[in-house]
Design brief:
The complex is a heterodimer of chains A (175) and B (108).
Chain A lengths: L8 H25 L3 H21 L3 H26 L14 H22 L13 H9 L3 H23 L5
Helix pairs in contact in A: 1-2, 2-3
Chain B lengths: L9 H21 L3 H25 L5 H32 L13
Helix pairs in contact in B: 1-2, 2-3
Classes of the chains: A mainly alpha (175), B mainly alpha (108).
Chain lengths: 175, 108
């Protein structure tokens, strides 16, 4: 495939994708390495926003919206509440435990990354012909027909998780 | 294959998902704070979801399946975050710390 011109529509799409990669990687790097927890949280917000952009590129604006709504809007806000409730000022720094854990973690993460990307690059992926287009309408129909059992189960799991979270966090509270 | 067209290839997304996953592993191994480890676990989940969505876009006959799968991962991640953070708060009430170095009651 020939490379598109930089200032054509395709070229602009490519540039936006590269910017998205940079944003997501920066966010993920901050989330994994920042010394203060609240900065790691800000990093993961940036990272999740970038991942939502990837979902948009993967033909799924619905999932991009859900990513922003659930991850950025709900999970990250919950984590920020937990940081404010449960991280005293003197322990808000959370660097590596000892001198060895940083390099060891780097080696392990590097091995996992190398292995998985070698697997992705060497495998010959065989695409199937599409039988559907994956619109929001189709997702809704499949959720309530083929996957209705899983849908109900996940509702119960979420309900139990909410009740359990309240019960666990309530324990030991005075007043 | 130029740098401007890499968004049309499955491998780009797979390598990128692996990158997010290994960043999460690095965070999980090096952090010594429970909340920091939870943040790293969320990073790993994001990498996994990205893999599912990439396969869903490029390989699967019915592209609704992968989106439903990623949606379920999000629901499980939300439940995990709620339970995990309430445990962190309970641990903090009990021990007055969330540092994994200090939570050593069962250590021999």
């Amino acid at each position: 495939m020939a490379a598109p011109a930089l200032f054509s529509a395709d070229g602009m799409v490519g540039i936006v994708f590269l910017i998205m990669i940079a944003v997501t990687l920066t966010g993920g790097f901050i989330a994994a390495t920042a010394e203060r927890l609240i900065r790691a949280l800000a990093g993961i917000v940036i990272c999740f926003t970038g991942v939502a952009g990837f979902y948009y590129f993967l033909n799924s604006p619905f999932m991009a919206m859900m990513q922003i709504l659930i991850y950025v809007g709900a999970i990250c806000v919950t984590i920020s509440f937990a940081i404010m409730l449960a991280a005293p000022e003197h322990s808000k720094k959370s660097g590596p435990t000892n001198l060895l854990s940083g390099p060891l973690g780097f080696i392990i993460a590097g091995l996992v990354f190398g292995g998985m990307s070698a697997l992705a690059l060497r495998t010959h992926w065989q695409p199937f012909t599409k039988t559907a287009s994956g619109t929001v309408r189709e997702i809704g129909i499949e959720l309530l027909t083929t996957y209705s059992m899983v849908f109900e189960l996940i509702s119960i799991v979420l309900l139990i998780a909410i009740i359990g979270a309240i019960v666990i966090a309530r324990d030991g509270r005075t007043g | 294959m130029s740098l401007l067209t890499i968004h049309q290839y499955l491998t780009t997304y797979l390598v990128f998902g692996a990158m997010l996953f290994s960043l999460g592993i690095y965070g999980l191994v090096t952090r010594r704070n429970l909340i920091g480890m939870l943040i790293a676990a969320e990073l790993m989940l994001a990498g996994v979801s990205l893999n599912f969505m990439a396969f869903n876009r490029f390989l699967v006959p019915d592209p609704a399946v992968g989106q439903i799968f990623a949606l379920f991962i999000m629901a499980i991640a939300a439940a995990e975050a709620a339970i995990g953070l309430s445990i962190v708060i309970a641990v903090y009430r009990h021990f007055k710390t969330v540092d994994t170095e200090d939570l050593v009651n069962l250590k021999g």
